């Protein structure tokens, strides 16, 4: 006797952004990312990478999660939930932060926007959005604050690159030069109401625009048309990864995980042990700060042409014994050499240190270099 699978047993439905038809019309190569159908590339990923470095790229980032935390004690609730000092964020400003477990392990890295005295928008990675929303609900218990997953209410577009201001300026009355880095403001862009933030994940200047899903295609079209004389092209997830790697920016599931604390990742600065509000993971993180990390995240630049990929072992160059692991690696279009990030013992972190990487059975030499690999002028 057989029976049909219950709805609960069926594979989860692939989620599509409001720009899905646009990506198909542009001939994008699509991929699954955290359950979303997303553009990997539209043509050449190296051309998209170079466009962002030299002109501008247009990204669909709707897969990111948006969680609203509001109410008289919203700031205190977030001080308790996150490692950062959220109460110190000014209205219309943003801050990079993390949510950690009781052992200090990283559940996700986040950007927190303060959109009002008692209103915050927490932006989480797509793969962790549901976890972060559930944790914030649990951690806000006992505070006069409400937590709501608003991810379905937003589409998110980004214009990244040195020509971003020139592309956006004709479309809005907002004085873009007055918008500081890690600031956000309500604005109208091409007739669309947006939350415009000067943030990004590429190492370049640029803006992220939160809008209603129904307005996403209209906004994309206006940005694309305005960007034509400035060299803007659509850019996918593939070049986004090489851009953030060059900029030394961590990716959850690679550099960041529950197996690491912010201190191993070189991000201890985001942990505010001095804030008056107790927070989840405080004791563990204070102990780790006191003891110091056993391993640290470093940049590696290959001496040869073979690429150190995520998961490859980092070796002692003399004994060829494993001492660490590559977390991210790729050819760098900007530097013209393979680069990687890896966790290694703290006594192997000095720039100029020669190490090796097991690339398919061969110990390939690499040098430790300071992060980031690339920093805009």
TrEMBL record:
Keywords: Aminotransferase, Transferase
SUPFAM superfamilies in UniProt: Aminomethyltransferase beta-barrel domain, Folate-binding domain
Record Gene3D superfamilies: Aminomethyltransferase beta-barrel domains, Aminomethyltransferase fragment, Probable tRNA modification gtpase trme, domain 1
Catalytic activity: N(6)-[(R)-S(8)-aminomethyldihydrolipoyl]-L-lysyl-[protein] + (6S)-5,6,7,8-tetrahydrofolate = N(6)-[(R)-dihydrolipoyl]-L-lysyl-[protein] + (6R)-5,10-methylene-5,6,7,8-tetrahydrofolate + NH4(+)
Pfam family, one: GCV_T_C
Residues annotated as domain Aminomethyltransferase C-terminal: 297-375
InterPro entries documented for this protein: GcvT, GcvT/YgfZ/DmdA, GcvT/YgfZ_C, GcvT_bac, GcvT_C, GCVT_N, TrmE/GcvT-like
Enzyme Commission number, as recorded: 2.1.2.10
Keyword Transferase applies: yes
Domain of life according to the entry: Bacteria
Chain positions covered by the region annotation Disordered: 1-20
Residue span, GCVT N-terminal domain: 21-275
Composition-biased stretches (Basic and acidic residues): 11-20
Keyword Iron: no
Stated role: The glycine cleavage system catalyzes the degradation of glycine.
Subunit structure: The glycine cleavage system is composed of four proteins: P, T, L and H.
Family the entry assigns: Belongs to the GcvT family.
Designated name of the protein: Aminomethyltransferase
Organism (species): Yinghuangia aomiensis
Organism placement in taxonomy: Bacteria, Bacillati, Actinomycetota, Actinomycetes, Kitasatosporales
């Amino acid at each position: 006797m057989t029976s049909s699978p219950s709805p609960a047993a069926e594979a989860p439905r692939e989620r599509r952004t409001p720009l899905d038809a646009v990506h198909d019309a542009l001939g994008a190569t699509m991929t699954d990312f955290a359950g979303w159908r997303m553009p990997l590339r539209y043509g050449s990923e190296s051309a998209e990478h170079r466009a962002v470095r030299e002109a501008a790229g247009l990204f669909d980032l709707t897969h990111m999660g948006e969680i609203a935390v509001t109410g008289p004690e919203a700031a205190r609730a977030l001080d308790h939930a996150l490692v950062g000092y959220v109460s110190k964020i000014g209205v219309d400003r943003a801050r990079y932060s993390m949510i950690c477990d009781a052992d200090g392990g990283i559940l996700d890295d986040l950007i927190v926007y303060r959109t009002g005295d008692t209103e915050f928008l927490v932006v989480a990675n797509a793969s962790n959005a549901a976890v972060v929303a559930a944790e914030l609900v649990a951690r806000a218990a006992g505070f006069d604050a409400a937590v709501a997953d608003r991810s379905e209410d937003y589409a998110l577009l980004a214009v990244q690159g040195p020509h971003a201001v020139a592309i956006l300026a004709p479309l809005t009355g907002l004085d873009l030069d007055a918008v500081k880095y890690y600031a956000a403001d309500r604005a109208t862009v091409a007739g669309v109401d947006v939350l415009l933030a000067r943030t990004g994940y590429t190492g370049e200047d640029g803006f992220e625009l939160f809008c209603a899903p129904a307005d996403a295609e209209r906004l994309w079209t206006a940005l694309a048309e305005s960007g034509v004389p400035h060299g803007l092209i659509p850019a996918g997830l593939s070049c986004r990864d090489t851009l953030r790697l060059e900029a030394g920016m961590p990716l959850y599931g690679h550099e960041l995980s529950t197996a690491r604390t912010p201190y191993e990742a070189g991000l201890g600065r985001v942990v505010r042990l001095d804030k008056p509000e107790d927070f989840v993971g405080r004791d563990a993180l204070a102990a780790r700060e006191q003891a110091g990390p056993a391993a640290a995240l470093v940049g590696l630049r290959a001496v040869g042409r073979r690429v150190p990929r995520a998961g490859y072992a980092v070796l002692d160059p003399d004994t060829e014994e494993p001492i660490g692991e590559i977390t991210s690696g790729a050819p760098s279009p900007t530097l013209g050499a393979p680069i990687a990030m890896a966790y290694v013992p703290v006594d192997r972190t000095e720039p100029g240190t020669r190490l090796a990487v097991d690339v398919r059975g061969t110990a390939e030499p690499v040098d430790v270099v300071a992060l980031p690999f690339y920093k805009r002028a």
